[in-house]
Amino acid sequence: MSIPGLVSVFRAARRLIHQPDNDFSWSGWTDADEVGREIDAMTLVLERGELPDRLAMRVLFAPTGPLQELSLSSGWAQEFLELADAFDRESGSL
Hints:
This protein is mainly alpha-helical. It has helices at residues 3-17, 32-47, 54-61, 66-74, 77-91. The protein has one domain. Helix 4 (66-74) packs antiparallel against helix 5. The longest helix has 16 residues, at 32-47. The chain is globular, with a radius of gyration of 12 Å.
């Protein structure tokens, strides 16, 4: 597991969720600010050298999870898949 690698993944996710014209309808979030707060909270924990709630992190990047739903309805599904792969690599055996 690589905490710096996870920080990079979360920062990349934050950039994607703030793209214009994202459609949050199926994600469970109302807007970019809501998901941004969730991602920022996890990033801050990682930057302290600690691990956020493992289940919350896994759900975020899971197939049919909220980020994938957002990506599918917003036109960046391929970028999500690459990000999810990076999360899997960096998280190791969480």
